[in-house]
Structure formats: structure tokens, C-alpha cells
User: What shape does this take?
Amino acid sequence: MKKISLLAMFAFLLVLSGCTSVTSGINVSAEVDETVKFSGYKSYAWIGDVAVLDDPENKWQPPKMNVAEDIKFLIDRELRKRGLVNHAENPDLAVIYFMGVDMEAMKLKTDPKTKKNILKKVPGASLVVALIDAKTEYAIWVGEASSDLTENPSEDTLRKRLDYAVTEMFKKLPKD
Assistant: This one.
């Protein structure tokens, strides 16, 4: 019985570690205007998206995937969860996101053998979502997710990472 319990625990930890590895390394933060009552907002409209990609060899985005549309879908989902409706005419909020991917980014890393810092290529990405009060035109909430990247991720892996980043980001949106 003890062996079965240990085996079950090992299997559970293996599954758990597999789940966390897909989203590991994603850092999420948000800035909020503390004077705003978010419950007063009922509608939103998209004002755009901006993508800056430094990926000359197409090593980041899977060829059949439209990352911009996936991000927009996830943001729409999170806003709907908050009771907001997409209303292009006279919205309370304007929504925009910025995505940057740099497959050529360089960082200082510690060489495990020599313990010295060396410059190494570490691809990185960042996603920023801004909610802007449509009347005042001030940003009232800005969420950011950033991470180092791996080359040639599967569509499934990339979708899970994006879903995690957007979901965690919007957990930081006040409910009042």
C-alpha cells in the first residue's frame, strides 16, 4: 500500500510539474488608477493593437496561428467575465494592446562552469494591455506580461502561455 501511495504521489507531482512548465517564467504585473471605480464601466471598444516583431527567421509564431486574433479573443473573454460588453458606439472604455517579440534579444547570463557573466541570446516577449477611460482619455489600468521565449513553440503551448498571461493579468483588474 505504501508503494502505491508513493507511486501515486510521484505521478501526481510529475503531472503537476508538466502543467507548470508551460507557464513558468511568465511575469505578470499591473498598474491601476486607485481613484477609479471600475464597477462604473459597462462597455468597451477596441482602438487598436500594435505588434513589434523581431523574428527574421519566423521561429516564434507557428505558421498557421494568428497570435494577434488569439490575444484579442482572450482579452474580450476577460472583459466579458467582468460584465463589460463590446459596444463600438459610445463605449465607457477604450482597449488597446501592444505586443513585442525579440528573438534576437541579448542578456547577461551566468556560465555554470566559470561562474562568470556572459552575453547570451535570450529571446523575449512582452504583452501590454491598456484600458483607457473614453471620456477623459486617461489610461486607468495597464497590465503587462513578459517572458523569455523558446524557439518554435507548438500552437498548443503558445496558446496556453498566452491564455495564462492574459488571465493572470486581468486578475489584477480591481472589482471594487
In short: Residues 26-170 form a domain with the Double Stranded RNA Binding Domain fold (CATH 3.30.160.670). Confidence is low (pLDDT under 50) at residues 1-20. The beta strands are 27-32, 43-54, 85-86, 93-102, 106-110, 117-121, 124-133, 139-148. Helices lie at 2-23, 67-81, 155-170.
